[in-house]
Amino acid sequence: MAAKITAVRAMEILDSRGNPTVRVFVTLCDGSTASASVPSGASTGENEAIELRDGDKKRYLGKGVLQAVGHVNDIIAPAVTGMTAIHQAEIDAKMRQLDGTDNKSKLGANAILGVSMACARAAANSCGLPLYQYLGGSGARRLPVPAMNIINGGAHADNSVDFQEFMATPVGAPTFSDGLRSIAETFHHLKKILKSRNLATSVGDEGGFAPNLPSNEAAMEVILEAIEAAGYKVGKDIAISLDSAASSFATDLKGAYDLKKSGGGAKSREQMLTMCEAWVNKYPIITWEDPFAEEDWDGFKAFTAKVGAKIGVVGDDLFVTNTKYIARGIAEKAANCVLIKLNQIGTVTESIDAVRMCRDAGWRSFISHRSGETEDTFLADFAVAMDSGVLKTGSASRSERIAKYNRLLEIEAELGKQALYYW
Q: Residue 341 catalytic?
């Protein structure tokens, strides 16, 4: 009885881009309370769950979320009040039933996810457990390797770089805190190098620098220079993770591309494949996310066949945290890793189901933030709970990104010598 839900309410807040999002508060009958704030993406897959926006151009340029807030307060709250908060799957199933659509377009994935996350956190508080142990069990003790976004391009920055994220990944560090320190130091050395060349050190949505560079390759080269300047060995201490977000520069989502921001020009699937394979052979790349567009399954399959034994080929827009698409990817060997974004699918339960499907297939799951974030640290606990071993949560700047890193430092300190950290 202690974990019975007695109250649920939502409000409109602002995310890291100054756009509205949903915050939900849940209260249980034992007095336990919790809140959760919903992230929002800029580079979104066509098959993601629907983020409900008001469309009223007189408020926040049409991006208000008062409808989603109203759906929490008027429809979801009465339905879940009285349910037991520890029964996460039942609560999430109830909300999906209330919505009745495949993509949560009626109530809004932002409304549903806010309640789902807040219920999980309230239940953890009621049980007297940290969120990572409540969701992951007593054995949850592996800290994720942080893939830190240090150069932004694509849809996340107004610069001359086509690929969306260039990330420093500390694969050789003995602990999470050591790994975080190494890439933070690399980030600061990168800033010095950019300043010395009179390049911009302003940052993109996720905190990475967004300089105008002569090519996509130049972004890689300057990162390698920064790693060495920070005193680390390229490939051994710190490797590179990429997110092309190729749908953003695809002229035909099924196999035609145009690297127009960098002046790289139009490329066929085969030309992209040749270029990407050459990069894998030349640079210390350890994972590559969305190297092809979300409908270019043939491109993904060909790339995975060529380099999948060497690196992690990560599907984001291809899979959108949806077991329907992940199952197809597994069957067709379209990748070997899946990016997990809670708001792509809309509930905690479905996100866990996606992670489980990856694990059962021998694939890795990478937990990820969105470009529009809040100071909510749910994601950090979720990454430890899921034992996936990798987390994307932005750069060593912007407090909404740093909040996740600081939460992981807290978890590491709490676990002490029992904490695990490895690639």
A: yes
